[in-house]
Backbone:
């Protein structure tokens, strides 16, 4: 079982006009169904327990709440259980490229909203797989690329998840501990409005600043 400490380090809490706002990215619930795993991890149950314990005033899921593109009976059951467990915590899902037909389940829960993007105060929240909406904002938060960085030392390579800062955008790592992540240099090209970036700044989940990485 994953400790809540892992979820804590891979999520972000900010203050908005709606109170304490918890941000998470790319849970990919049901990833076992698409990756051929025969063992259920119950990841989504642990994640729901963490969210309930945090008890935010608002939860924002930055897309790819689920893994399978479709919506099978099993996937519906997993999502129903997840949304039910949140105990009416106001939740916004900024729809990702894996979230097809998710409204069919979310629509059964009055406390859950699915949208392409959310503009709250001067902050923009979205998944990151499409172009920017035509809105004015000061800071943006997204997921999509599952950013990670590989440390190499003495012939040993170790990949770790990172937060990425590119100008006024902050990219969150996937909160799913079973998904490793993509090299940030390759991943940044998956975001249409960031693929021209020359460099980004990296932060470990613990908040340690790693420095600036050139992308060219």
Residues:
């Amino acid at each position: 079982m994953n400790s809540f400490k892992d979820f804590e380090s891979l999520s972000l809490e900010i203050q908005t006009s709606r109170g304490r706002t918890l941000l998470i990215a790319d849970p990919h619930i049901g990833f076992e169904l698409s990756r051929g795993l025969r063992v259920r991890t119950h990841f989504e149950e642990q994640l729901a327990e963490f969210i309930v314990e945090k008890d935010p005033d608002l939860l924002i899921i930055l897309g790819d709440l689920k893994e399978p593109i479709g919506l099978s009976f099993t996937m519906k059951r997993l999502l129903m259980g997840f949304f039910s467990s949140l105990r009416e915590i106001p939740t916004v899902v900024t729809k990702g490229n894996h979230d097809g037909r998710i409204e069919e389940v979310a629509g059964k829960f009055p406390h859950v909203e699915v949208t392409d993007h959310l503009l709250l105060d001067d902050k923009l929240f979205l998944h990151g797989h499409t172009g920017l909406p035509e809105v004015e904002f000061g800071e943006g938060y997204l997921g999509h690329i599952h950013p990670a960085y590989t440390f190499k030392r003495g012939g040993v390579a170790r990949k770790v998840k990172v937060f990425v800062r590119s100008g006024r955008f902050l990219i969150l790592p996937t909160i799913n501990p079973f998904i490793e992540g993509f090299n940030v240099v390759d991943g940044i090209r998956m975001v249409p409005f960031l693929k021209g970036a020359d460099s980004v700044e990296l932060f470990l989940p613990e908040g340690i600043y790693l420095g600036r990485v050139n992308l060219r």
Observations:
- The longest helix spans residues 73-85.
- The radius of gyration is 17 Å.
- Helices lie at 4-10, 31-34, 43-54, 73-85, 103-106, 184-187.
